[in-house]
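Technical note accompanying the year-one report. For the benefit of new consortium partners, we illustrate the data format agreed upon in the data management plan: each record pairs a sequence with a structure-token string. No post-processing was applied to the example shown here.
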Amino acid sequence: MSTVNPDSTTGPDAAPPAPRPQSSGPFQPGDKVQLTGPKGKLNTIQLVPGQLFHTHRGAVEHDAVIGQPDGSIVTNTVGIEYLALRPLLNDFVMSMPRGAAIVYPKDAAQILALADIFPGATVVEAGVGSGALSLWLLRAIGPEGTLMSFERREEFADVARGNVATFFGYDPQNWSVTLGDLTEALPTVAAAASVDRVVLDMLAPWECVGASAEALKPGGVLLCYVATVTQLSRVAEAIRGTGQFTNPDSSETMVRGWHVEGLAVRPDHRMIGHTGFLITARRLAPGAVLPELKRRLSKSEFSDEDVEAWTPGSLGERGVSDKNLRKRARSAVASAGLSKARSTTDAAEPATGRPATDSPAPADRPEAGDGLNDGGEAVN
């Protein structure tokens, strides 16, 4: 996995144009472009007329890419060919500035499926982190849906707002971020039995099960994303203990790629293994009791040692230094400002007739400048 020098893109213009959100058609100034070299190395650049993207072997002229259709092959100054594509949402979330660890695309896809996130749904999300899952949820619910996100740390909320605004080019009107604890803040913004889905991505989701049950409609889905077995065990018992949900279902997703070339077909040497557990349950109607619960004890017995293993201190929490977090928040906010400025400019110009698409305009890492390596370190 290689890196790109932040000064590798040069040219006469001091300031690049603002990114063009979710654009399609021929590449235009301000577009993000993913260049794939002959060895499969990925680099994302922002197109600026007159500038160059330098590599260790020659340079790619931005002008050679501008005006070309998506999926074109461009040649650098020494004859090396590069594939030029607009980055996908998957590429965006893996390379955007991070405050907290992100939900991997493989888990985000499972969350959308297991929670049955549908267009027009009202969804509550606790633990907004860097905004990766928020992007997937906003994509799924569409403009008619509503996403209410809750975050305890203002720095994380700033990073998430910046990343979402960078991707869409504006602040979605159907998305709100509330600072504070879900158990206290949710009743103030959502009436009882008014929410279709609740997604909890936090260290201690069992603390929010009661508030989630109050907000969910009968038949609504509660989904929790946790990293450890002890978290999984405790949240499952918390869900059962309310008597307001179906028995929880738990799973994890592992993705293994395959090498396929002629008759040489084998699994890849590396795979995306454990990142987290998903646990889901559905809200019962008021007063309903599951048949199997009538034949079992209403409360399980646990020793003091078991309870101690469930405490947040025992679970542990990997954090980000305040200095690094402030730097990432500034980068996300600055990128969002550029995207919103370009979106406003595009809205004021006459329509070009180019069709709309959901292709993302990915954010860069804070330190990567115009030319970025897409191989962001995967953490969860």
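Partners are asked to follow this layout when depositing records. The longest helix spans residues 322-348.
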